[in-house]
Amino acid sequence: MSAVTAHKDPKLPPPVALPEDASWVGALKLFDAHAAETLVAAARTLYPHDGLPERIYRRTVFHFDAMAAKAPVAAQSFAEFVDLVDGALPLKFAELSEGYRVQVLKGIEQSAAFRLVQRSTVRFLYDDVEVWQAFGYEGASVHLGGYVNRGFNDLDWLPDPPPGV
Amino acid sequence: MTTYAFDDEGVVVIIGSGAGGGTLANELAQRGVGVVVLEAGKHLTADDFVNDEWGGYEMLSWLDKRTSSGNWRVAKDHPLNPSWSCQVVGGTTTHWSACCYRFIADELRAKTVYGDIPGASLIDWPITLDELDPYYDLAEAKMGVTRTNGLPGLPANNNFKVMYAGAKALGLNVSTGRHAINSIPYDGRPATIQDGFTITGDKTGSRWSTLNVELPRGLATGKLELRPQSRAVFIEHDAAGKASGVVYVDGAGVTYRQKARAVVLAGNCVESSRLLLHSKSARFPDGLANGYGHVGRHYLRHLIQTVWSTFDKPVHMHRGEIMGGMIDDFVRHDPARGFAGGYYIEMNSMGLPTTAAFMDPGWWGRDFASVIEQYSKMAGIFMSGEDMPQPDNRITLTDELDAYGVPVANIHYDDHPNDLKLRSHGYKVLTSIHKAAGAKRSVEAPAYPASHNLGSNRMAGRAEDGVLDGNGRAWEVPNLFIADGSNFATGGACNPTLTIVALAIRQAGFMAGQMAAGEL
Question: Which chain B residue shows the shortest CA-CA distance from A128?
Answer without folding.
Answer: B353
